Amino acid sequence: MPNTLAHICIQGVLTRKLINNTDLKWVYVGCIIPDFPWILQRALISFIPELDPYSLRSYVIIQSSLLFCLVLSAGIATLSNDFWKTFKILGINSFFHLFLDAFQIKFANGVQFFVPFNWSLTNFGFFWPESIPTYTLTIFGLTYFFINWRYCTSTHTTLVVKSAFRISQTALIIMVYIFIPLLLLNFPVGSNNHFMKTLRPNHDRAGEYIELDRRGFIPNPNGDMLNTFANERIGINGIEYNKDATVSVRGTFISNGMIDVIEYHVHSPWFRNYASYLGLMLITLLWIWEPARIRIRIFTQKLRLAIKNNK
Predict the structure, then answer these.
(1) How far apart are the two ends of the chain, measured CA to CA in Å?
(2) Deepest in the core among 83, 91, 123, 309, taking most CB within 10 A?
(3) Do the Cβ atoms of 185 and 197 come closer than 8 Å?
(4) Parallel, antiparallel, or unpaired for β 209-218 and 245-255?
């Protein structure tokens, strides 16, 4: 996926062209809805390392599909004062996010537009994450965010958080988002999304074609290794690199535990992750800015009144 900042500018401009009086704060939420499952996956792996990585990967693929992005958009939109407009903003930006993701070259990866009718991954493969288009979108996104900071902080976003009916609606939709994917776990595996079927330990891999996206490469005098998303170390031939790296690989299994590389790409160890962390931090700051400013104003007024009364 492109980093979060890369999504902000192009999605902000397009949404404001399509929807009048667009609240950019909702646009920014829509920019990260498809990434929610992947962010949570990292947290779950850290806190519950014994989770089955294949089931977890399948679950996240389902949740990040366009269908379930729309489900989550509906759940979030129920907290808005204008459900349909907010849902439209969130849904459109979920689609824009996935569409933009599909433009990047991703071995073994792609986006799911047609779940549950079709489980194939869409990837147009025009440019790598470390390329001029991505760098340009990132700079534009950061610039766009700060140019519109004053507009965003002066725009009041009404949330309906005291309505029991709205909260129950949100809870019901979020339950659908959480639990329905559990019934569909076999479909991404059956379609060999992310080559999960090929990579399963009980599968005879010899002679099978394989792709791996952004995996840890470990050089070793006794034989180079590659970490899969299931944290399995597999031997690898054909990567001419002499230090730890994050790589994407296309190749063929010459045995169950050895891959012969056809093509590989070395990724930046920091660019995408840190640009995304910065984007997430800025979006979070924007959302807490208004309530924090209101509370500070109320506290200041009470403090002045208390000082005045004590005099």
Answers:
(1) 60
(2) 91
(3) no
(4) antiparallel
103-154 pLDDT per residue, tens:
999 999 999 999 999 999 999 999 998 999 999 999 999 999 999 999 998 8
In sequence order, what are the beta bridge partners of 217?
Answer: 226, 245
At 237, the pLDDT band (50, 70, 90 cuts) reads very high
- Is 83 a member of any domain? yes
What tokens appear for 118 in the block?
């079709």
Q: What share of the chain is helix, strand, coil (3-state, %, to 5)?
A: 55, 15, 30
The sign of the torsion formed by the CA atoms of 63, 69, 120, 98 equals negative
Strand partners, 215: 247
Domain, as residue range, for 112? 4-187+270-300
Distances (CA, A) of 256 to 162, 189, 280, 290: 56, 19, 39, 55
Residues in the chain: 311
pLDDT in tens, 286-300: 999 887 877 777 777
Per-residue pLDDT at 175 exceeds 80: yes
Peptide bond into 116 cis (omega under 30): yes
Question: Which helix H or strand E contains 255, and what residues bound it?
Answer: strand 245-255
Tokens for 267?
């990724």
Residue 226: which CATH number?
2.40.50.140
Nearest to residue 212, comparing CAs of 202, 191, 198?
198
Run of H or E residues at 224: none
